[in-house]
Design brief:
The protein contains nine helices and two strands. It has about 230 residues and is an all-alpha fold. It has a domain of about 150 residues. A two-stranded antiparallel ribbon has the order 1-2.
Length: about 230
Amino acid sequence: MAGGVPLLAAAASKASGLVTYSLPVQTVILMTMLMFVPAIVLMMTGFTRIIIVLSLLRQALGLSTMPPNIVLIGLALFLTFFVMQPTWSQINRHALEPLEAGTVTVTQAIGIGATPLRTFMLKNTTKDATAEFLRMDGIKKALPTAAAIPMRVLIPAFAVSQLESGFEIGFLVYLPFLVIDLLVAAVLMAMGMMMVSPQTISIPLKLMLFVLSGGWLLVTGTLVRSFS
């Protein structure tokens, strides 16, 4: 290159009205994106809602370490993959496969791949959360379409919405087990068995009712359908 300018310094060039990048710069962009994969899985998918509900379920059963954290996280990850599979299929078909074929650049693939993910997040983000973050971002005028919402607004609004949804579903899961705890405590007090811990009786009862009613299928099925 003339003047001894390094390749990376002149990586960006304009062709056909679009900014394209050289292969080294595209590689750097791709590697940088891979560093954000954990954050994407946590904050831009249904993982947050799922892990909150599963954690509250464990507490409702009165079990502090069973199932272990690694089991809950693994189940949450696979449920997340199941829920996100249609979205990721679109990303793979429209962004990753053309990128491998060389028909689009890395930056173009990022823009194309963000569209299905944006659609998923918009469907699972409350209007109140979106409006609040738009207000905090200083966007006061009404946006023409939902697709015009900036990602810097959509991502935190989606994350907060997932937290709210997770606690709402978790409350509904927690409530019947709380009733069992109260009933057991009331019966023990009526019988004068003050020295017996209510959890000694309630935990086996809750486990029996949960297993007999197919609780895991009910909870996981409710979680998956909540994203539909």
